Write the structure tokens for this entry.
Amino acid sequence: MAVSDNNKESVRIKPAEQFDFFHDQRVRTVFYQILIVVAVGWFVWYLVGNTAQNLGARGMSTGFSFLKEAAGFDSSFKLISNEPGVGTYGRIFIIGALNTLYISVLAILLSTMLGFIIGVLRLSNNWLVSKVALAYVEIFRNTPVLIQIIFWYIGVFSLLPRVKNSIDLSGGTGVLVLNNRGLYLPWPIPGGLLWLTGVAIIFAVIAVVILKRWAQKRQDKTGQTFPTFIVSAALLILLPGIVYFMTGMPLDWDIPKLAGFNFVGGASLPPAFMALLVALSIYHASYTAEMVRAGILSVNKGQDEAARSIGLRKKRAMSLVIIPQAMPAIIPPLISNWMSTIKNSSLAIAIGYPDLVSLFMQTSLNQIGYAVELVAMTMAFYTVVSLIISWLLNIYNKRVQLVER
């Protein structure tokens, strides 16, 4: 069969592409990336080397060997044991880091819960409720957090009654007391079989997750809802409770008791801790409230109308329809708010709470020197924690993103 001239013209052989090393886009991209990495590496090497040379010329030691040296001081508040003159500066770093994480995690949890509540109340149809929520946001958001920390420490917790006139927060039982030296509360003393109760709690949590997924699939197929909240609460309470009682209640409590001029036993939280916790929680809750309000307003009003049309009450529509759709708009600014909470915890140095900055970058620096290393380790700690928070919330944000169809 003869091939026509038109078909010959349509079937053309493309000329082989010639590789040009200097003009190829892929080569340029890799080359520029390598060039930037080399330039940054050289800058860091030059900066570190020049700093070490200048410190050596002034007779100042460099390196991280000081972390193994014994520290001659202790922390007034710590989550792990330490003995002055025995514990090292590395242990002081761990104590300061744990104190920072402890106050930061509690402040993040409290500010997030309070912020969600205030954010929803900002959109209330009740004029008084919405205006009170607005006043809360505007007052605490526009006041510097350092001023709030000092106010709560000097103006509230330092003015509490003395030890003999302590405020009993436990209804006369003396289990939970508050005074100008802090908050005193019971401390658990675990028994030998308490681990079985912990295993029961883990199984209960797994059962709740499985139950929730089953109820969701059942609702998607049949449209029928299942009382997951009641069943989940029963699982989380009854299963560990039964195991706890069957093992002989292997948990005792160390109750604080007044002995002389102070309480002994139990656990205590100093006024600086409580002032910092209250100030950070209230301050960052005001920002969270605005994020929640903006996220809810970003959801189309038709979603609420559709939810109400199928019989959902306002609270159920908010929790099942509006809030889940608002989360993709809430999470990105919430990441910055959580990171700011951790960084603002360093302001604890103003009221004497022994966080990482106070213990490691101030007290340790005054005793042993090594300013560059101490500051670098402190900066690295805040950087790593912030990156972890950003990474985790970004993973969650991808899961709640709406998928376009």
User: Anything to note?
Assistant: The chain has a mean pLDDT of 84. The chain is about 65% helix and 5% strand. Strands lie at 167-168, 177-179, 182-185, 187-190, 251-254, 257-259, 262-264, 267-269. The first strand starts at residue 167 and ends at 168.
